[in-house]
Design a protein that fits this description.
Length: about 70
Amino acid sequence: VVGAEAEVITPIPADSVGEIALNARGSRITYPAHSATGLPIARGTPVVVVRLLSNAAWVKPVGQWQARPG
């Protein structure tokens, strides 16, 4: 799931939890989501999952994501 593109379906406040949806293996999956940047993310924003922990995702808007060397 890390690296997957998703869509914000419930706005993500700067200091709280929203929700994202993504397609994986032909199914639509939703996760509680936090902003990895600490900034709010609006509903409908395309995001990339940068971390998954305890069934919650940390995401960044698509244009702000960069892969880290391994």
